[in-house]
C-alpha cells in the first residue's frame, strides 16, 4: 500500500515538482486584487501578453505574493481552448484571451493539439476542436479560465 508518512516526507523535502502541466510560463505579478477570500492576479507573461489567475487569498498569503514578484503560471494543455483568431464564437465569459502564432498542429479524433508562440517568445500548448482547420503560421486565440491558472514560485 501507500505509505502516507513517506509520501509526506518526500513532498516536503523536495525543492522541485515534476508535473503533467505542460504550460509552465515565466511571469511577473503585475497586479493583485483581493476581494473577500478570492485574489485575482494579473500575471505579465512578456511584453504584451498577460494572464489572470483566480486563487484563494490564503494561497496569495502563503506564497507571499506581491506586485513585481517573479512566478510561474502553470496550466494544463487540456484546459486551454484554441480557436482561429477571427472566430466569432470566442467565449465572452473567459477572461484570458491570448493571441498567438501557431507553430504546430497535431490532428486527433478527440481534438487538435496546437502549439502557439506568444509575444516575447512565450510558448503555449492547448487544444482545438477536431477538424479545426488551424494551420501552422496562422493566428489563433488561446482561451484560459482564470481558475485553471496555477501560480507557483520558481525554485
Can you characterise this structure?
The protein has 155 residues and is mainly β. Helix content is 11%, strand content 45%. It has helices spanning 4-13, 57-63, and strands at residues 23-35, 38-44, 50-56, 70-75, 80-84, 96-106, 112-117, 123-128, 139-144, 150-152. β2 and β3 (50-56) form a beta hairpin. The protein starts with a helix and ends with a strand.
Estimated share of beta-strand residues: over 45%
The beta-strand count equals 10
Task: Report, as a whole number of angstroms, the end-to-end distance.
Answer: 31 Å
Write out the strand line-up for the largest beta sheet, numbering strands in chain order.
3-2-1-4-10
Shape: elongated
Number of helices: 2
Structural class by secondary-structure content:
mainly beta
Rg, alpha carbons: 17 Å
**Helix proportion range:** 10-25%
Order of helices and strands: HEEEHEEEEEEE
Q: How is the main sheet built? A: 5 strands, antiparallel
Report the uncertain regions.
Answer: 10-15
Global mean pLDDT: 87
Q: Main traits of this protein?
A:
155 residues, 2 helices, mainly beta, 10 strands, 5-stranded antiparallel beta sheet
Summary, kept brief:
This protein is mainly β. The protein is built from two helices and ten strands; from the N terminus they run αβββαβββββββ.
